[in-house]
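pasting for ref
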Amino acid sequence: MADLLPGVGHRLTDEDRRMLDYLRLELDPCDTEEAVDLSSWWCDGCETDEHIHVETETVICRRCGEIFENILDQGPEYRWFTGDDRNPDPTRVGAPQNPLLPESSLGTTMLLRKNHGNVMRKIKRYHTWNLMPYRERNLWGIFEGLHVRAINAGIGIGVLEEAKRLYAQLSALCVCRGTQKEALLAACLYESLKRSGTPRRPKDIATIFQINLRHVTKGLKQFANLLNMDERMGTRVVAAENRHNTNTMPAAAGGAAAPVVNIESRRAKWDSISRSTTTFEHYIEPFVSKLEAPRNFTGTLVMMTRQICTRADDMGICPENTPPSLTAAALALACSALTIQKSIQEIAAVCDISVVTLHKCLKRLEVWRQNLLETK
């Protein structure tokens, strides 16, 4: 209290002291009293616990000055203990753990200083070589290459992390080298994009990885087979665990029904995530953004293209065409209705489909032009 009202601390009443304590707590945002339970402390000299507080990580009585305990900080130590010699010191907290590289995340770092000899340098070199296992070192290099390709292609971090997780999960089931490894990695990125609701065509994935489209198709087939294998292995493990639980758990506690519930839940998750298909909704906005239409027509063009695709899908006009082909034809029809000067060749080049396919699909839509463009 003396630091607030110097010279008058000995003349304050108990009510004044309580008021000053309250004001001090309000003015001091760094007080850590809330993090410490003070209900178990009692000052025998003052015969009260009203003046027990925490100051600079120490539990004291502010009235008589008795020290009860020094609190040890249990949190991470982020400070740097730099000496007067200005030598660099390492941080006290390491990098966060990577669940995809569990063994490498537990490693330590050895520092070298100027006065260390060749023996210490050799120890550091050997330690660095053995810090990361071969498989995790290989995965780390693959992830770094995938990161560069994804960033250059404008793919988000969330999609990238999901692709890494899929590859780490499936690559443990088989040995892939060369083009087969690139194809499996491309399939993981393709599946990750599809799960995030922003799918891309196999052609685009082949362009990102600079491999033939045929290899991407093979990679997608291999991805489906490995995912089925992983799902079956997981189901067998869960069934075995549940059989063990059934033998040790009474039926009334859910032991008999547990295997069915777990298998059905995994099957429902598989159906909702892995078997989702792409629709025209996934291609409308990317195609419109690449078309470079006038800015004031962009919103109207997206809405009209979506309307044409929805009605054409409901009426079953082009059931044999893929979603990109239907979207490109609907975009061409919308440009014609809005008098936007874009030729079929330009739209086909933007959507990366053949002019013949676009012309055939557009010809079917033209027959129902009035029904597709009318406003309700």
